[in-house]
Amino acid sequence: MNDVIPENATSAAVRLSGASGPPEAGRRPVVGVSLKLYFGLAATRTWLADVAALKGALAELPRPVDLFVLPSFPALADARELLAGTGVAYGAQDVHWAESGAWTGEVSAGMLAEAGARYVEVGHAERRRHFGETDATVAAKTGAAVRAGLVPVICAGERHDNGLAQAVEETLIQVRAALGGAGPDSEVIVAYEPVWAIGAREPAPARHVRTVASAVRTCLRDHGVRGRVVYGGTAGPGTFGRLAGSVDGLFLGRLAHDTANLRHVLEEVAAATVPAPLPLRP
Asked: What start and end residues bound the annotated signal peptide (predicted)?
C-alpha cells in the first residue's frame, strides 16, 4: 500500500481561526481505556471485575458517559463475561483490514464483532513506529472496522512539539487519510494523542489541545461522519476539566489501571458536560 496524503493539509493548518467551535450540545461524552500489554490474563480479569464494579457509579453520574475498555485479544471473552449487564463496552487494540484469508496471526473486524466488541483502536503511534503502519494501512483498517459495524478509535497526533500549525497539519493528514476508509455517516472516535505527550509527566497544554481538537472536529464535519473527539497523552484526573467544551472525553492509559482514578475521571467528565439549566421564563 502507498501512503494517502490528503490535499490542502498546509492550508488547514494556517486557518486556525476558522476551526469549528465547541462540541454540539447533546453529544454524549465518552471515556476509553487501552490496557496495551501491561497486564497478563489473570490481572486483566481482576481489572475487568473492578471496572464492572463501577456499574453503580456509572448509574449515578449526573449525565451518562460512554465507557469502553480495550484489553488484549485473549481477554475479549473475559470482557464479554465480566462486563455483561454493566453498560461498559469493550473492544480491541488492533484489527486487520482483510475479512479472511492467509493472514497468519491476524484478527478480522468480523471476528471481533462476533466476540461482542464494539470499538477497535487503529493507527496508534506505537503501531506506526514499531510495526511500520502507514496512513494507508490505517485507512484500510478503519474501513474494515466500519464495514463490520465497529466504531474505530482513530489515533492521530504529531510526533514532535513544533508548534500549533505543525500539530494541526500533521494531525489532519492522519485523520483525513483514516476517514478515507469510512463512508458518510459512519460513527468514529478520533483520539488526539500528540506523540510527544504519550507517557510524559504532563499532558499537552490545554490551549494546544483545544486548537487541534477544533480543527479535527471541522474535519469530521467536512467528511460527513458522526464523530467524537477525545484527548489522550498522559490524560487522567484533572485533565478533562481543563479541556471541557473542546473535546468529548478522554482516552486513558496507565492512570486508569487504578479504577479509583477511572471513577474520578468519569465523574469529572459527567459533571463538566451537564447541560446548563434553561433560564426561567419571566
From this structure: none
